[in-house]
Amino acid sequence: MKKGGIIFFKTKKLDQIKNFYIENFDMEIFLDQKKCVILKYENLLLGFCDSEEVENSSTITFFYESKNKVEKMYEKLKKLVTVDLKINPYFKIYHFYIKDPEGRNVEIQHFLDKISEVC
């Protein structure tokens, strides 16, 4: 197994959150431990664990290789958009934001500058 990391979040709605990320971002179940599920998208691992509280003060960012893919995601997620599709000239990204069912910020973006391949 390669080295890597997982970002974990507390959730009150484990099944709903799991389905949200699988259906909207094509994430796959990496490991299901009943009270915690780890989802995988390319090199991103997100863990959600059943809890009495919700952890939603962070931003989860999905980045795509083209503006076109970001625009397709925008159309797919249009009803959930909280910050419209735009270019951020400072960070040189093309992006928009949505909220997941528990209020976590989710950013969908494309880097306008050429970046190195992420392994």
Note down, in words, how this protein is organized.
The protein is an alpha/beta fold and 119 residues long. It has a single domain, classed as 2,3-Dihydroxybiphenyl 1,2-Dioxygenase, domain 1, CATH 3.10.180. Helices cover 19% and strands 42% of the residues. It has two helices and eight strands. It has helices at 14-25, 67-77, and strands at 7-11, 28-32, 36-41, 44-50, 59-63, 81-88, 93-99, 105-111. The strands form two sheets. It has a four-stranded mixed beta sheet, covered by helices on one side. It has a four-stranded mixed beta sheet with strand order 5-8-7-6, with helices on one face. Strand 2 and strand 3 form a beta hairpin. The longest helix is centred in the first third of the chain and has 12 residues, at 14-25. The protein starts with 6 loop residues before the first strand and ends in an 8-residue tail after the last strand.
